[in-house]
Each structure stands twice: as C-alpha cells, then as structure tokens.
Write a structure and sequence with these properties.
Keywords: Cytoplasm, DNA-binding, NAD, Repressor, Transcription, Transcription regulation. This protein is of the alpha/beta class. A hairpin with a 2-residue loop joins strand 5 and strand 6. It has a six-stranded parallel sheet with strand order 7-4-3-8-9-10, sandwiched between helices. The chain has a two-stranded antiparallel sheet with strand order 1-2. The longest helix is centred in the last third of the chain and has 29 residues. It is globular and about 65 Å long.
C-alpha cells in the first residue's frame, strides 16, 4: 500500500460514525493492544482481546466492525495493524496540543501526567489567574497568566483544552477558548457549558460518578442481604 493510500485509509477510519458506547470501548481495546505490543505479542484472537478488555467476543467484533476490521478466521488480529486502525478512528494520528486552564491541584496533576504523551497528547500550556501561581513551574511548563491566554494559545498551537476551574468562571473562559479557535474541550467544571454546534465538550463530573457508584454499591448490598435471607429460609 502506498503512502497516499495509507493516509486515505487512516483518514477514512477517523471520520466514520461510531456509537458512543463503542467509542468508549475502543479506547479500552487500544490500551490492551498497546500492552500486548509491549509484551511482543504479534497476533491476538477476538476471545483473547475481549478477555483483556473485559467484554464478550460478539460485542468486541461488533465494535471493530465500525472500523471495517474483522480479523482473519483462525488467525485473529494483527496487533500492530489493529492498533493503527483504532488510533486512526480515535483521531490519535493527529498532533493534539493541549492547554490546561486552571493550575490548582487537579490542573497540576493533569499537566504532570506522563500517560498523555504515549497516547498522542502533548500538554503545551498551563494557565491560572492567581498572581502567586503565575510563573511557577509545573514539570517543564511555566504557568501563564489567564490574561495572556489568547496569545499563548496561538504561540503554542494548542488545539484542545482542559477546563479545571470553578463553575462561576467556566463559561467565560470557555467562550474565550472557543473564540481562539479551540473546538475540543474537556471540562471538570461543575456546570453545563453552552457552546456552538461545531464545538465538542466532554464533561467530567466526579460527584455524579461517585453517586452512580453509590447506587450500584447499594444495589449489590441489598441483593447480598436478600440472598442471605433466602438461604436462611431454605434451611
């Protein structure tokens, strides 16, 4: 396959519509495949990959069908090739340059996270409004003033942003990011952000996730109590 044909294939994979649930699982498959590559594994069956990802084989094959990849019966999947396909579908063949807005504990932790680089994300800017924080070094980054956000975004070529700020300032900062050309935003702010249709916002609400965990934990406890009660009645 020529270089241009390979580029066309990767671009085609990246623009296919993939259902949200399948998209989330593709990230898990890619992590499992990356581990296999690190262990020197060249081929993997659907059963083996499904087990590594914690799903069943039919679901995995359905998810991978959105990439046009079905493997070879009796042979399985080429680990390296499948990794490339999934990375292309997730947009990871592009150069993602991330700006983090908010240099509090969470923002600093994200800025220093070593796993971003291996997944195609480079943190290029870190902002804060606190004069005592501005100018401090976090890893190799120096915290920039929020007042200079637009110029720093342009200088660094940032094309993705993370908002780690209080709710009351999140919308204003989001508007400034969008006006600067940022169309992909991950928000940890506990507020629903209003953005144009062409801007993608993913909201991470830790309190909501903990509430969902509490619900499932409660169900498990009730089910366990009921099972013990039935066992006592049976005896």
């Amino acid at each position: 396959m020529s270089t241009s044909e390979e580029s066309d294939r990767l671009a085609g994979a990246a623009v296919r519509h993939i259902p949200p649930a399948s998209l989330a699982r593709l990230t898990i498959y890619l992590r499992a495949l990356s581990s296999m590559l690190g262990e020197g594994i060249d081929r993997v069956s659907s059963d083996e990959l499904a087990e590594a990802a914690g799903v069943n084989s039919p679901k995995l094959r359905k998810d991978l069908s959105y990439l046009g990849s079905y493997g070879t019966r009796g042979v399985g999947y080429d680990v390296s090739y499948l990794s490339e396909q999934i990375a292309a579908a997730l947009g990871l063949t592009r150069n993602w340059r991330v700006a983090i807005v908010g240099a509090g504990n969470l923002g600093r932790a994200l800025a220093g996270y070593p796993g971003f680089g291996s997944r195609g994300f480079e943190v290029v800017a870190l902002f804060d409004a606190d004069q005592l924080v501005i100018g401090q070094e976090v890893g190799w980054l120096r915290v920039s003033s929020i007042e200079a956000m637009e110029s720093v975004l342009e200088r660094t070529g940032a094309n993705m942003a993370v908002l780690s700020v209080p709710a009351e300032v999140a919308q204003d900062l989001c508007d400034r990011l969008v006006a600067s050309g940022i169309t992909s935003i991950l928000s940890f702010a506990p507020v629903v952000l209003q953005v144009p249709d062409d801007v993608q916002v993913r909201k991470v609400d830790m309190a909501t996730e903990l509430q969902i965990l509490a619900y499932h934990a409660q169900r498990a406890q009730v089910s366990n109590i009921a099972s013990k009660a039935r066992a006592r009645l049976a005896t």
